[in-house]
């Protein structure tokens, strides 16, 4: 009987990486506010695609439309023209499905509610049973490093801790997308460094898609997978910088001294200066 032949080797091509899922798709977005006596051209022809797990920072001069852009994604403003989808839905559908959490510049916590009850509030509005509300609130508070502070009132916490409570509140109903509008803008630099570090760890562990507005170049480079540099009003996109290509995903504060970090920071600064009108 002839010896069994070994099965011929077939080369299986490596499985292609699945294309990242688009969470936010913005096409040719223009927004003009109708102020009392004149139109305000806030955004002009903005197109941007944000994939699942991206951490996008929007940076640009004051009044260039960063908040407006986030508010359109959150269905708090209507575009004058252009298309926006969130998780494949219109912003309105996404809002109704609670597809995003919103963190504002000021923590906006209710002073008469404990920390835990502040985080539970959106869950209360959703009608979740108390035990589930409490469990979810505790999980989120632990995630932002505030386990043990559940029974405190907001006024008993520092500004940085209050902002962490508002992040926990935004995360409480497990949104796919986290919108953060200059959440650390009002904090001192050391606290801000600390929160940047915490936020980057939180992002690594949850892989939420984040859109983050900031005026700080260092903060944008430290946190982001991509930085979107905007022009003065009407806001247009001047540059989109891929930070992930040159910086590791896990970042510690000392990365800010690295030549790669400095190079990206320079490019952001160049973009901001190029687009800036000093006549304003
Ligand atoms: N409801 C509104 N009616 C009229 N103009 C508005 C309205 N909301 C915002 N604006 C104007 O639109 C422009 C863009 O505002 P927006 O708040 O989006 O800018 P921004 O880049 O977030 O500014 P900042 O960095 O100062 O927070 C500004 O000139 C602002 O004054």
UniProtKB/TrEMBL annotation:
SMART domains the UniProt entry points to: AAA
PROSITE patterns assigned to the protein according to its UniProt record, in alphabetical order: ABC_TRANSPORTER_1, ABC_TRANSPORTER_2
One of the record's GO molecular function terms: ATP binding
Domain of life from the UniProt record: Bacteria
Name used for this protein in its record: ABC transporter ATP-binding protein
PANTHER family: ALIPHATIC SULFONATES IMPORT ATP-BINDING PROTEIN SSUB, TAURINE IMPORT ATP-BINDING PROTEIN-RELATED
Family: Belongs to the ABC transporter superfamily.
Keywords: ATP-binding, Nucleotide-binding, Transport
ABC transporter domain ranges (all copies): 26-257
One Pfam family it belongs to: ABC_tran
Lineage, opening ranks: Bacteria, Pseudomonadati, Pseudomonadota, Alphaproteobacteria, Rhodospirillales
Coiled coil (UniProt feature): none
